[in-house]
Amino acid sequence: MTTPEPHLEEVTPLNLEAALGIRIRPDQEHAVEPVAHSLAEAYVRPPGVAWPRLIVDGDRAVGFLMAFLDIDWPGDGTLRRSGLWRLNIAAAEQGRGYGRFAVESVAAEIRSRGGTRLYVTWHPGPDGPEGFYKRLGFRVTGEESGGQTVGVLDLDRS
Fold it and tell me: What average pLDDT does the structure give for the chain?
């Protein structure tokens, strides 16, 4: 018998309630928007900009991610970037590798579209996810976006 692997699913009417049910730890709520907010943002963006996905393991919704794909970066109309916009891992599912899986999945999608860098922003400070992102190889760019730290991961093309 094989163990199910985590995978991404598009958010559809069939799994919408599962997506909306993703709850992070209360001490993290100041650092990331709830899934409902992210889905609303995805809906009002031009098609193809936001890439919302439910993270599923077996029959359990364990998290939610939303990537941004090939957008004009604020402050520089000539610069286009792709990256991880939101990451919500359910409180009871944290520490099980789903965050890493999410970042790797976004990296694979960006590579498939010809991208070579994955950007992310995070809430700065001791209660933010900077350590998580740095352990995955992100480096701080020195930029800020909306009061958040900007990090980048160079994607290996091999």
Answer: 92
